[in-house]
Design brief:
It is a single chain. By secondary structure, this protein is an alpha+beta fold. It has one domain (22-195): 3-Layer(aba) Sandwich (Glutaredoxin). It has helices at 2-17, 63-79, 102-112, 125-130, 170-179; strands at residues 33-36, 41-43, 52-57, 86-90, 118-120, 134-135, 137-144, 147-154, 194-195. The strands form two sheets. A seven-stranded mixed sheet has the order 2-1-5-4-3-7-8, with helices on one face. A two-stranded antiparallel sheet has the order 6-9. The chain is globular, with a radius of gyration of 18 Å. 34% of the residues are buried.
Length: 201
């Protein structure tokens, strides 16, 4: 009986020591370097004059991502010139979702007229690092000295079907508050969309 109790205590202790899954609000982000659809490598360090960044884990194939596509383009148009560039990262494995291959990304970005980086992560290390679970899944970052810290995590807004019917535009609200030197009021929401297509381990 004592052995069982000690085993249970050990399991609980090991569970408590398990590292958290991805970033939380307030965490400092580790930089990354990923290939853009133009073939060039892109990292956060490239945006030296940025006040922050809008990181969107997005893809070619998810129906929810497609509904948000114009809103994602609009976020970049609205905030990139104000110091918050949008960076899209495709987290899906093309081994599982063939429509999310690098070649498909290049074509998709061209057809949509993307004016922001659309990055390919063959290793899926960056979505794992961030703790992304869905497409789309947004992380708003704010510059803090030489670092970038997470200020908001979650959905773009509260209506996946229609931008016009959204009552809370979470990403816009977060970036606007940051630009005004305020704390973000709504720091975390549930990301709504397709689950990331992870390759077999």
């Amino acid at each position: 009986m004592k052995r069982v109790i000690f085993a249970l205590i050990a399991v609980v202790m090991l569970g408590a020591a398990t590292p958290k899954n991805g970033y939380e609000v307030g965490d400092t982000v580790t930089d990354f370097s990923l290939k853009n659809v133009d073939g060039k490598m892109v990292s956060l360090a490239d945006f030296k004059d940025a006040k922050g960044a809008i990181i969107v884990f997005d893809c070619n194939t998810c129906p929810v991502s497609k509904k948000y596509n114009e809103r994602i383009i609009a976020l970049n148009e609205k905030f990139a010139s104000k110091g918050f560039p949008l960076i899209a990262i495709n987290p899906n494995s093309p081994e599982v979702s063939s429509g999310d291959s690098f070649e498909a990304m290049v074509s998709y970005a061209k057809n949509k007229g993307y004016r922001f980086p659309y990055l390919y992560d063959a290793s899926q290390a960056v979505p794992t690092q961030f703790g992304a679970t869905n497409t789309p899944h947004v992380f708003v970052l704010a510059k803090d000295g030489a670092s970038m810290k997470v200020a908001y995590i979650g959905a773009i807004d509260d209506n996946a079907s229609s931008a016009a019917d959204a009552t809370h535009r979470y990403v816009e609200e977060a970036v606007n508050e940051l630009m005004q030197g305020k704390q973000v009021t709504t720091k975390k929401t549930k990301a709504i969309g397709c689950t990331i297509k992870w390759k077999a381990s």
